[in-house]
């Protein structure tokens, strides 16, 4: 038996971990994951790592396809939908990215990273009230400076100055190193 037959994603995983997807092993790990998926189209680990490698290489179409397949194989994997949405956003497919995030949040409603991305996508669609509420939900689940700054900025752009400036000042006071 070959390594692929024993554990299809093992070879690519090792290369991915050693190389971090940026150097000479990146293409070899992609080829390994592609081969694993070719041998077993439902191999969720190979699909997951393949999608990650595609994201690292900025192959957003390949990543979106890998994560879409992953979510078909493992529909309960919230991270799969989040990663699919990340790739779709890069492709400018905002509506599909929103759909993927909504699926992710049905599985795991407390993930601040998913909520923040969804809020940014709502902004792009000019669904500002939904964006504000989604940023607030992200902050409730994980109060960190990034969604706080994003919400403060949005509120200022919406001419809700007092509320926006208050959030921006609060973020600056609690994280002075992140005030760019």
Q: What does this protein structure show overall?
A:
This protein has 180 residues and is an all-alpha fold. The model has no long low-confidence stretch (mean pLDDT 87). It is 76% helix and 0% strand. The N and C termini lie far apart (55 Å). The radius of gyration is 19 Å and the shape is elongated.
What is shown here, in short?
The protein is built from eleven helices and no strands.
Features:
mainly alpha; 180 residues; 11 helices
Oligomer: single chain
Q: Average pLDDT, to the nearest integer?
A: 87
Number of separate helices:
11
Per the principal axes of the C-alpha atoms, what is the gross shape?
elongated
Question: Helix-strand pattern, N to C?
Answer: HHHHHHHHHHH
């Amino acid at each position: 038996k070959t390594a692929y037959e024993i554990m299809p994603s093992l070879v690519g995983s090792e290369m991915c971990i050693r190389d971090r997807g940026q150097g000479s092993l990146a293409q070899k790990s992609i080829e390994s994951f592609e081969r694993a998926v070719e041998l077993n189209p439902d191999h969720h680990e190979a699909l997951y790592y393949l999608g990650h490698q595609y994201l690292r290489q900025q192959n957003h179409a390949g990543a979106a396809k890998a994560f879409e397949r992953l979510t078909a194989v493992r529909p309960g994997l919230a991270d799969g939908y989040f990663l699919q949405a990340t790739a779709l956003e890069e492709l400018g497919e905002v509506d599909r990215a929103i759909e993927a995030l909504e699926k992710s949040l049905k599985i795991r409603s407390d993930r601040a990273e998913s909520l923040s991305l969804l809020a940014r996508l709502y902004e792009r669609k000019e669904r500002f009230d939904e964006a504000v509420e989604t940023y607030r939900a992200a902050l409730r689940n994980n109060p960190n400076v990034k969604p706080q700054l994003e919400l403060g900025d949005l509120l200022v752009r919406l001419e809700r100055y007092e509320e926006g400036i208050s959030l921006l000042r609060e973020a600056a006071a609690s994280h002075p190193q992140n005030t760019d």
